[in-house]
Write a structure and sequence with these properties.
Oligomer: single chain
Helix content: 40-55%
Strand order of the largest sheet: 1-2
Distance between the termini: 43 Å
């Protein structure tokens, strides 16, 4: 039997934009309320074939996305942690600690997500989840940090788009996971960028490095995301591979166009003066975290992970 779905309770779309924030109150680099949070997911209540109201195509998009997080979040943590003891700004040092703690939690929960998929008969091991097309030892710490900053911008844009989608409906446990993860991505969206800017610098060299990093990351990640989406869909439905590839492409780039919606955000990354903190998400985060149904998710409890 399919799990019941319910809708993310949001105010009208316009109310979530910066106009809802008092004038003269610039957005912080990271909200004071940001912290490491423990979230418990009952994986036995998750149906990975029908976890989203959009059916199997949408459900397997989220499954394919989740496959990248166990290793991806670990990569992000190591990239930022490399510079941790060189950080000069005390506030940024505090933000890095929260970033590491949050990303460690995300990695843990998505490892459990993937394992739960296996128990339901899905085959995540058939999917390619590499982040790089060359050995990690051939990638310099500066390149890793630039790639991390670029991917953090992508995940923040995806998170914002998901949370602003009026008909974003999932089974309760999966909804809890993705809303929690999305909110924390918005909370720490500036951290890797700030570390890059402080440690690597701006100017032409820094700009060129982050532009190259965005292209490097996206040219491998995006095709793999669609390929993994198609593989999971084919194994679950028995459709032809061609039909599954078309379904994955259509979902990403046509209807509903989950990746197409992110194109303006992706292109903003290439502006010389780009700053992720220019997107003020305080009203959006406050509304979601104040929802009685979601408030327990955002209770602070870091007993199962250390940010050190």
């Amino acid at each position: 039997m399919r799990a019941a779905h319910f809708r993310l309770p949001l105010a009208p779309h316009a109310a979530l934009f910066p106009t809802a924030v008092p004038a003269g109150s610039p957005p912080p680099r990271m909200p004071e309320s940001a912290s490491r949070r423990d979230v418990a997911i009952d994986w036995t209540r998750c149906d990975f074939s029908h976890g989203h109201e959009g059916g199997r195509v949408t459900s397997h998009f989220f499954n394919a996305l989740s496959l990248f997080f166990p290793l991806g979040e670990k990569f992000f943590v190591h990239s930022v942690r490399h510079y941790r003891h060189a950080i000069r700004d005390p506030r940024l040092a505090r933000d890095v600690t929260v970033f590491i703690g949050q990303e460690a939690m995300h990695s843990r929960e998505h490892r459990e997500y993937v394992e739960a998929m296996r128990t339901q008969g899905h085959d995540p091991d058939a999917c390619d989840v590499r982040l790089l097309d060359r050995p990690l030892e051939d990638v310099t710490p500066e390149e890793r940090l630039a790639i991390t900053a670029a991917m953090e911008h992508f995940t923040a844009a995806l998170s914002r788009s998901m949370l602003l989608t009026p008909n974003f409906e999932q089974a309760p446990e999966l909804r809890k996971l993705w809303v929690w993860h999305a909110c924390e991505e918005l909370e720490h969206k500036s951290v890797a960028f700030d570390v890059f800017r402080e440690q690597i610098g701006g100017g032409w060299r820094g700009y060129r490095m982050r532009c190259v990093a965005a292209v490097t990351a996206s040219r491998l990640f995006l095709p793999q995301l669609l390929a993994n989406h198609a593989r999971l869909l084919q194994a679950d439905t028995g459709w032809s591979l061609l039909r599954c590839r078309w379904a994955a492409f259509r979902h990403a780039w046509l209807l509903p166009g989950v990746l197409l919606r992110l194109l303006p955000d992706f292109l903003r990354w290439f502006r010389p003066g780009f700053d992720p903190a220019d997107d003020d998400d305080r009203a959006l985060l406050a509304r979601i975290q104040a929802d009685p149904l979601l408030r327990p998710v955002f209770a602070h409890d870091d007993s199962r992970v250390s940010g050190s």
